[in-house]
């Protein structure tokens, strides 16, 4: 599958200093992550809030310094570039930030907002009114919207303006952080369809970040599941969804089942809270919440096992259809 990666992330770590005088230490918001995104591909990054998704996205986009690892985009190492050298890279790799309305300046019109990338990058010789019309049409908004202000837009329309900004300069890769957060379910589908449609028409690669696994089921080619700044499982989206191998993935899926009358769902409730990054659990870092944990799990950290394009960091990967021990007991008695 790694035929023509446009983006290559290798063992990336992001460290944040914490603590005051005399008690300085650091936490790893991203704790050694590797993945590749191929041209034209959609890669999904999922995990609970706080798992490091936004930090990783900001690192890839050069907004967050990394403390270890390497990031290569279109065959160029970009993690060592300074602000100025990073600017042309951002034309090719655009970022859609969390919060659709809040990320649009309230005093700018839609027309100014969607053409702002041309001004930021000092691109001249374009008829900006024509560009605005072209971009609004591409994202399915009426061209009459050029004179509207952000507060006159619905959540879904604001997201479309965000998408228009992201595609303005013809990027090869879009990183979309929670593109559907805060939207009604039907509007979420529309925004995802739009992104998918643009990917095909413009030949884009995409990284979609979400805390809701089901958002990406039908749009992502591959999915990686993050926990405490690491990938616990990654693979072909269809396989990850139909037969999760990591208990955390299984729990995320069961917590938010897709409406399917033919399936009965055993909800896997995760005990205990997400551990603090200041006190990472020993052994497998998921063992404090894992219904399947055994004594070995609190001692040995699992290696990432890779087979058939899937990677899982677990001593006891789940068989398809596995049920958590207490539910299996209930069913047997
Ligand atoms: N600037 C920062 N300083 C210190 N800690 C941070 C900073 N940014 C993020 N973090 C921490 O890094 C972890 C990952 O955060 P984030 O990337 O925002 O997660 P997600 O996007 O998955 O919700 C969290 O524990 C968060 O508190
Ligand atoms: Mg986030």
From TrEMBL:
Statement: the UniProt record of this protein carries the keyword Protease: no
CDD domains found in the cross-reference section: ABC_NikE_OppD_transporters (cd03257)
A single MF term (Gene Ontology): ATP binding
Keywords of the record: ATP-binding, Nucleotide-binding, Transport
Membrane topology qualifier: Peripheral membrane protein
Stated family: Belongs to the ABC transporter superfamily.
Descriptive protein name: ATP-binding cassette domain-containing protein
Species of origin: Ruegeria atlantica
